[in-house]
Amino acid sequence: MAQAASVEELVSQTKSKYALVVAAARRGRAIMDGYQPLVQVNATKPVTIALEEIQRGLVSVEVPPSGIK
Known about the structure:
Blueprint: H1 7-14, H2 17-32, H3 46-55
């Protein structure tokens, strides 16, 4: 099993800490609501599973355009 990515690696992959947090929280909530995880990992926390899915490119992270207020 591959080692989990660090937060810095995920942020560099997504280019936005905010977008990463929002995507992981949304996907984690979906997993809590009954959606099946897209990966098999030993993690039990939904957000940890979501971050693994993001790392593997199975969940996209949408970065909002800059300048939105």
